Amino acid sequence: MNERKKVTLPVLYDKMAQGIPITMITCYDYPMAYLVEEAGIDIVLVGDSLAMTVLGYDSTLPATMDDMIRHSQAVRRGTPNAFLIGDMPYMTYQPSVETAIRNAGRFMAEAACDGVKLEGGREMADRIEAIANAGIPVMGHLGLTPQSASALGGFRVQGRDAERAKRIVEDAKILEEAGTFAILLEMVPDRVCQLITERANIPIISLGSGPHAHGQLLIFHDMFRLYPKFKPRMAKVYGDAGSVILNGLKQYVKEVTEREFPQPENWFTIKDEEYEALLRLLDQ
Ligand code: KIV
Prior knowledge:
By secondary structure, the protein is of the alpha/beta class. The chain folds into two domains: 9-239, Alpha-Beta Barrel (TIM Barrel); 244-283, no CATH class. It has twelve helices and eight strands. The chain has helices at residues 9-18, 30-39, 50-53, 65-78, 97-111, 125-133, 149-152, 162-178, 190-199, 220-223, 241-257, 272-283, and strands at residues 22-26, 43-46, 83-87, 115-117, 138-143, 182-186, 204-207, 215-218. Strands 1-2-3-4-5-6-7-8 form an eight-stranded parallel barrel, surrounded by six helices. Helix 2 crosses helix 4 (65-78) and helix 5 packs across helix 6. The chain is elongated. It binds 3-methyl-2-oxobutanoic acid. 3-methyl-2-oxobutanoic acid binds next to strand 6.
């Protein structure tokens, strides 16, 4: 494994101050986290998108705290140095401030996360303030917030008209004042993201919101064609791991069927004398 320094909040703020883009990715398991660590990604989000990408549901809503903790622990083992964020799943912070603090605390205590993320604007400011006051770095999430996809009319760009864009710009400031250490802007028009970034004193991370943010996020399974149902327009495919795996699986089926697999290097043997002794034992 590469030697690299632990990514901390000061490291992220330094990057922002120096105009060095921050890299962020979602990740859900140990082997992928190992690769993410090798690549030197700054921020790793164990997203509740795992309900879709890993568990096969049609939305993020079925993800539970226990799912998130289990996967965050695995990711932490793979990437000890990235700034690891646990995504607070549906209804683990909406009901009350206390619920929010307790569940945020689980990510820190049980999965050694460096922070948490939750969705929502001004209506979540009290949760953000309380979590931050409990000493837990908390990232905000504005624009398309998948837990509210139904209320937002589906998975679509947010803030395309002036009134709605104004609300997102205001929300970003309110969340910053409430104590978020960074804000993720998902599927917000590029110039709205630019306005928010220019006004912000904390890192703004873009997911489909253009080049002006302090950093970029992509969903791991979209980058490598590992999610079969659809590819969001904003995602860039960096490699077709899905095809590599599928071709390997087809080859395996063929080789087993045609008795080409296994070969001697794929199995274990017993010494002749032990085998003879075994036959004698079985004869007794
Ligand atoms: O769950 C997730 O992966 C997310 C991203 C869509 C930002 O929240």
